[in-house]
Amino acid sequence: MKPQTPPSELALAFDPLKPVLMRAAGFSMVISLLALSPTVYMLEVYDRVVNSRSGGTLVMLTVMVILAYAVMEILEKVRGAMMRAAGVQLDEKLSERVYNAMFQGFLRRHVSGGTQVLNDLKLVREFLFNPALLALMEAPIALVALALIFAINPLLGWSAVLGAIAQMGVAYMNERASRKPLNEANRSAAGAQQFAEASLRNAHVMESMGMLDAVHARWQKRQREFLSHQAQASEGAGLWTAMSKLIQQLLGSLLLGLGAWLLLGNALNGGGSMMIIGSVLGGRVLAPLGQVVAQWNAVVNVRSAWARLEALLAQIPVRPEAMALPVPKGFLTVEALVAGAPGQQVPIVRGVQFGIQPGEVLAVIGPSASGKTTLARLLVGLWPAISGKVRLDGADVHAWDKAELGPYLGYLPQGVELLDGTLAENIARFGDVDMVQVEAAARLVGLHELIMSMPQGYHSPIGRDGTMLSGGQRQRVGLARALYGKPVFVVLDEPNSSLDEAGDAALANAIAALKQLGTTFVVMTHRSSILGVADKILLMREGAQQAFGPRDEVLAALQQKAQS
Questions:
Q1: Would you state the pLDDT for residue 307?
Q2: What residues contact residue 333 under an 8 Å CB cut-off, 6+ apart?
Q3: Number of H helices, E strands in the chain
Q4: What does the alpha-carbon distance between residue 230 and residue 425 come to, in Å, rounded to a whole number?
């Protein structure tokens, strides 16, 4: 006996919604029955009013059908509200999980870790009130309608069954015709959007070097691929949707004609009115299938979105809750570290091993492509190691809960990225803004006077990606963010690459000031200005550790080697 596959995390998220979906399905069946009110009203008018000439009967029937319409409208409103509430509940349950998985996927360089998954969650949520799903909820009434048709006459019943089979055949052909081009269209659209976003981030480079036409041509090529796949999918879906409508209309007429033929042979149970009822019920049998075929694009899209979400959540499982660790003091040890980019087994850093004490400053030097940036990412726990460990106070930095460790850690990457918000919000890491700490961090890096010269001071917006600031200003804001709250361990990757002489001096003073408070620093640098505040130096070349020790000893050894 094959072991039963456990439900996915995404499927389990729908478990709390099942009672709501069941109630919505009940409402849908009642709505489907009430949709027969016009037919019943018509038959009753012909049967009772026309024959009896009774105005009172007409008034009574009219009031009843109006009440049926009102109840149907109310039930549809309530059902819609229920499904929207279910969508909100699903979003509350999954949005943080999906966002965190997307974030971790991007760090680990998973293909499924892009922003597309947020749109996938939106598609799944909005499908809860898609007409295709609501039509499926009405499917039980289609079976009731089919049973009633069989009760009128088996020939009518089997005709309705043949119509349903034909409708399912259309749905199958629609699936075959539209699935591949729709999936290709979605991939092409995502690729075109990502390329456009990357172009905007590099707009100044493109404009300065006249790249706009070439980049636009590349984007246009991707856009044409998307439009081509979309047109192919739409043509196929349009053909089968038209076929579905044709079958539904033909079945109604066929059942009416068959009913008349059976009536002529006295084989129609219930009399002449059953011709019309059989035709109407035949339409109810095919209505759910017809609605699903009409909405097939949405069905394919949500199925693809579901698969991508499931893949991402399976690749990035929920991190188990780790035991809370004490506040770190800044003891850093690196043990035989071998590491490369996530998902790659080719090492960039090989055999790095050193240790520094709280309050010490380590300057990491070496030529370009020597592994300094990779080491910086390993030290703050962004990338996993192939072998070896980075430990802070004896604890594995990569496994340490970043929400717990973050307030005690500062990091300035080589490419400073700021978020759309105010200066204060960016320096305070978008947490609760402590203006005393924000101003202290800004003063440390020599940014306070510049900020106060702005019309809105610390509440000045910086624009998307910090476009309202110069390169040097962005680097200083990123540095202030890294030093916010006086962290105990700080990693700076080329922190002075965009700084002028004054900024360079402010950086050295900031490191010296926090060093006196016990902050441990690791600074990747090409500039000698940082060496004045360094206690130790690590020399790297081609990913390997060439020298490590007290600053003066390493510098003397390097000078002696250069002279020999």
A1: 86
A2: 354, 355, 389, 390, 391, 394
A3: 21, 10
A4: 42
For the segment 489-514, what is each residue's pLDDT rounded down to a tens digit? Answer: 999 998 887 777 887 888 888 999 99
Per-residue pLDDT of 112-121, as tens digits, reads 556 678 888 8
Tokens at 112, concatenated? 């499924």
pLDDT at 111 over 60: no
| Count of beta carbons in the 10 Å neighbourhood of residue 169 | 14
Q: Which two tokens stand for residue 9?
A: 């995390």
Q: Quick check: 422 and 459 in contact, CB under 8 A?
A: yes
* Residue boundaries of the structural domains of the chain: 8-130, 139-294, 332-563
Residue 442: predicted pLDDT: 92
Cα–Cα distance for residue pair 28/72, rounded to 1 Å: 10
**CA nearest neighbour of 499 among 557, 445, 460, 462:** 445
Helix axes 18-34, 55-107, angle to 10 degrees: 150
Give me the pLDDT at residue 322, please.
64
Q: Out of 3.30.1390.20, 3.90.700.10, 1.20.1560.10, 3.40.228.10, which CATH number does the structure's domain 139-294 have?
A: 1.20.1560.10
Which CATH code for domain 332-563? 3.40.50.300
Report pLDDT for 138: 81
Q: Give, in degrees to the nearest 5, the angle at Cα 412 between 462 and 509.
A: 95
Q: Which H/E stretch holds residue 521? A: strand 520-524
Does the pTM exceed 0.85?
no
